[in-house]
Amino acid sequence: MELLQKLKLLEENIxxxxxxxxxxxxxDITANKRYEWELxxxxxxxxxxxxxxxxxxxxxxxxxxxxxxxxxxxxxxKFNFLNTTHVKKYISMIGLRNLxxxxxxxxxxxxxxxxLESIDDFKNFIKEIKASTIN
Length: 135
Fold this sequence. Notes:
This protein is mainly α. It has helices at 3-23, 26-31, 33-60, 69-78, 84-102, 109-114, 119-133. It has one domain (3-133): Up-down Bundle (Four Helix Bundle (Hemerythrin (Met), subunit A)). It is built from seven helices and no strands. The longest helix has 28 residues, at 33-60.
């Protein structure tokens, strides 16, 4: 999938996550598994798209030989594709992705819901990538 398509998909996901944030309360998530699944998958897919974009750009511009997803994001920060003050936030999102995959049974609904506050981080990521690769 092309970079612009991935960015568009991430923007669509952000819109859905914003709707969840507006419409669904923490109590709804704990009371109805469907809402928890929607939130989990929405966050997971959005983070995975961020990772895919980061690794694709790292490879395309031959920025180095990253050994993991974290290093893809670090390299984008090092070479000014991403704002270095945001890199730690993006890396922590990778940590959430790993929890969603490997520790899914132990994720607290309250902590999961709190990640809806990261929506602006996704928006910042999109702006930074567009500014550094498309403009």
